[in-house]
Amino acid sequence: MGKPLGKILVIDDNEDILLAAKMLLKKHADLVQVESNPGKIPFLLNNDTYDVILLDMNFTQDTTTGKEGFHWLEQILEIDPQAVVVMITAYGDVDTAVQALKAGATDFVLKPWQNEKLIATLTSAVKLRQSYNQVKSLKENNHQLTSVLNSGNAMNVIGESEAMKVVFNLISKVASTDANVLILGENGTGKEVIARAIHQQSLRKDKVFIGVDMGAITESLFESELFGHKKGAFTDAKDDRAGRFEVADKGTLFLDEIGNLSMALQSKLLTVLQKREVTRVGANKATPVDIRLICATNMPLHEMVEKNEFRQDLLYRMNTVEIHLPPLRERDVDIPALATYFLGVYNQKYRKKIQGISPQAMKKLQKYHWPGNVRELQHALERAIIMADEEILQPTDFMFLVEKHTETEEVDYSEYDLETVEKMMIQRAISKHAGNISKAAKSLGLTRASLYRRLEKHGL
Ligand SMILES: Nc1ncnc2c1ncn2[C@@H]1O[C@H](COP(=O)(O)OP(=O)(O)OP(=O)(O)O)[C@@H](O)[C@H]1O
């Protein structure tokens, strides 16, 4: 659209009016289509799209009922419900004009019109049409993005053990309610997988699932990331921005690593959860948010409450239902199904044709204690599939660095390079502290963040 009024259709049975409209509007519009016969409206609208339609109220000379105008207005809106129609009404017939607005017209102009007023009315009508279109395409995009986001992450939750059956049973009971869920379990046990499964089985499944890693958000960016900000609220706030709470509106908000929040941030989060509304940084008005909350952590939240490291009232807000995900070493029955599942995933990813896992290799997998839980098993399968020379995976395809070393068992570190020793030490520490990252980090003399960086580096 080049000129401000775009494409205009003018329908009036008075040829003088059509001529006057065309003369006036052609300077402001890309196309002015005039038509004296309203019967042609369906044909015109089915063959072209107009930014605005100027429609006469009365087609029969000397009538002022507007009946015909209403009839054609209805026809137009039936063909294009988004059409922007401005009615031309006789002077003094404002009542009919008001009825036309109720029937779906956007605005009206009085005949004889003042040129400037007509242009101004049509310009605002065109702007309205543009915003209708924008809203429509944003809604379509949003719908597409939501389904891509949700389907891209749709995954099978594998588990045949009694422990996982209990988890599945809980999910099916809780999913369709809006109850807040707290998922507890060691790193890599599948807390996010379970959170997504709850979302996928909930009434909110067609809306977004937004995950936030609370451990990765710095104290200073917490409010802006979660609650959003107004343009200019701080130096880097170049535009208005919605926070994760607002983005997750009508969907599910998954707050991971919730146990890592400082006391100060815990109370900010609690306020929002109590009020169910957020105020963007720099704004003075709160926006209501409708979210389903799922939180997860590998930290012992109940113990932390006792030690005054975690707010009890916040814990009670989050744990209407608690799901405990057992570590993989306590459900080795699940290992064959998980390993076979990952075999399929990575065969496809790396275009390999590995047929299966030998019974001895499977036994080895079931005997190992998996300090990194399902994530570690997944990486072990990925590595084995990339490296394997044979069609069936053998025990030698799975080399575990801390294979069954007991605390007292000595390892000859001189056999390994520094990187490998570091990895072994980390695995040992995590295993010793049953997956508790804080304790493992402390025993290694590292901060949690630097342990996480090393876990990432070693693919643990
Ligand atoms: N039951 C399961 N079925 C299939 N895949 C699983 C299952 N559990 C975990 N996984 C896979 O293991 C990996 C780790 O899972 P996830 O990220 O959900 O764990 P987590 O407990 O949230 O980890 P973290 O505490 O580190 O955030 C993911 O790649 C996930 O796909």
Automatic annotation (TrEMBL):
Keywords of the record, alphabetical order, are: ATP-binding, DNA-binding, Nucleotide-binding, Phosphoprotein, Transcription, Transcription regulation
Coiled-coil zones: none
Where the record annotates domain Response regulatory, the positions are 7-126
**Signal peptide interval:** none
User: Where do the Sigma-54 factor interaction domain residues begin and end?
Assistant: 157-386
Fetch the InterPro entries from UniProt. AAA+_ATPase, AAA_lid_NorR, CheY-like_superfamily, Homeodomain-like_sf, HTH_Fis, P-loop_NTPase, Sig_transdc_resp-reg_receiver, Sigma_54_int
On this chain, the residues bearing 4-aspartylphosphate are D56
| Keyword Lipid metabolism listed | no
Recorded hits in Gene3D superfamilies, A to Z, give:
1.10.8.60, 3.40.50.2300, Homeodomain-like (1.10.10.60), P-loop containing nucleotide triphosphate hydrolases (3.40.50.300)
Cross-referenced PANTHER family, in alphabetical order? ALGINATE BIOSYNTHESIS TRANSCRIPTIONAL REGULATORY PROTEIN ALGB, TRANSCRIPTIONAL REGULATORY PROTEIN
For this entry, the protein name equals: Sigma-54 dependent transcriptional regulator
Lineage, broadest ranks: Bacteria, Pseudomonadati, Bacteroidota, Cytophagia, Cytophagales
